Hints:
The protein is an alpha/beta fold. The protein has one domain: Spore Coat Polysaccharide Biosynthesis Protein SpsA, Chain A (Alpha-Beta Complex). It contains 11 helices and 13 strands. The chain has helices at residues 36-46, 61-67, 71-79, 83-93, 109-114, 117-120, 140-151, 212-218, 229-239, 257-269, 275-286, and strands at residues 5-9, 30-31, 34-35, 51-56, 97-102, 125-128, 132-135, 154-160, 170-176, 181-189, 200-208, 242-246, 250-253. A hairpin with a 4-residue loop joins strand 9 (170-176) and strand 10. Helix 3 packs antiparallel against helix 4 and helix 8 packs across helix 9. The protein binds 1-O-phosphono-alpha-D-glucopyranose. Residues 109, 129, 131-132, 169-170, 189, 201-204, 228-230, 255 line the site of 1-O-phosphono-alpha-D-glucopyranose.
Amino acid sequence: MNIRKAVIPAAGFGTRFLPASKALPKEMLNVVDKPLIQYCVEEAAGSGLDKIGIVTSRGKAVLEDHFDRCPELEALLEEKGQVDLLEEVRRVQGLAEITAIRQPQALGLGHAILMGETFVAGEPFAALTPDDIYDCETPCTRQLVEVFLEKQATVIVLGRVDREGTKKYGIVKPKPLSDRIFRILDMAEKPGPEKAFSDLGILGRYVFTPEIFDDIRETPPDGRGEIQITDAIRLHLRSRPVYGLLFEGRRFDCGDKFGYLEATVRLALKRPEFRDRFRSLLESALND
Ligand code: G1P
């Protein structure tokens, strides 16, 4: 079965980004010239997923507005002859069919994904967290979709993490099948270095078969009252195979202030219109 749908959980408070995220959803924080959520929607669309459900919460309607049509703005840009901007605005609006889904209470990533069940309607689907910007030749989600198409089973993205990373990410117990593909035997949410099964972390991209929803429903809340997707995938593992893919490319953890700065610097340096000036700026700033 092919995949057409993606769920993007974007309902959290973004406490790691306070105070910037107090009145502005963290998913609207700008990296170079577009918000985090747009990187995520572009990755999903570039992976062939043209129906996207964004899980939001109170005060986050701006996320839907960003992808909605704005006839007044289009008319203004047309009148002023700002053709490039008009094209860009229309391109963003046309990236995918966006459905807004509401999560009434912030009860964890697993719960946020569960809110997408009606939208997903029994199909396999991808889930992408907007905290992560992936910069890959083949979009990261597409890399996962390719494995899904072969295995017809749940696939999660993996990346190598350091000691600190074992406290920040879900960590898997892998059985290598090839250089980049693993059968997942077990996993734990943020276990810390002593209890980590390996140095392979789950980095915010998933392709699920729809049975995951039953597993999420069966998952008890953790100590903080949140339903973790990692715990739901552990339940899923009891009855179905789960695969992990070591992705090819680069990822920026924009859930973290330093990762966000790194994304800004590296992605700005990749842009031909900024590259030389930005490099000189960085060099001169380093000598201050
Ligand atoms: C979530 C998941 C975690 C995963 C991480 C990746 O954690 O629970 O398993 O490794 O995303 O970005 P969060 O960053 O929301 O605390």
